Prior knowledge:
Strands 1-2 form a two-stranded antiparallel ribbon. A hairpin with a 6-residue loop joins strand 1 (75-76) and strand 2 (83-84). It has helices at residues 3-14, 21-35, 43-51, 64-67, 99-114, 120-131; strands at residues 75-76, 83-84. The longest helix is centred in the C-terminal third of the chain and has 16 residues, at 99-114. 51% of the residues lie in helices and 3% in strands. The mean pLDDT is 86. Helix 2 (21-35) packs antiparallel against helix 6 (120-131). The chain has 6 helices and 2 strands, in the order ααααββαα. It is an all-alpha fold and 134 residues long.
Amino acid sequence: MNHYLLLSLLLASAASAAETPHQTLDLYTTEAARRIPGFEPNAGLGEVFFQRRFAKAPNTPSCVSCHSDNPVKHGRHAATGHRIGPLAPASGNERLTDPAMVEKWLARDCQRVIGRECTAGEKADLLSYLISPD
């Protein structure tokens, strides 16, 4: 079974079950561990990924192009200028609690920013960073 189908099934079965960002993180961690036994999400790698400049698109070379370098603060869409809510749950929002929405936005934004789908491990690292208290 290809990993896209497996992740879709995993997210669909848990879509109504995840109530916290940690539960959403657990879904990606489980998927990553299937591919890399012993995988553990790394917030430090997630931060590096979030800040990293990719060469895919000149106006959105990194996550911080739209989301700001502080995930607790509001961002602004690089092309439209529309305000984007903070990504980090520490800002008091309910972001990252709906696995289907998290997957929808990561699927779109990974393609736009890095030019490919993010791996489950990259997603787990990123969520680990966004969830981390620091």
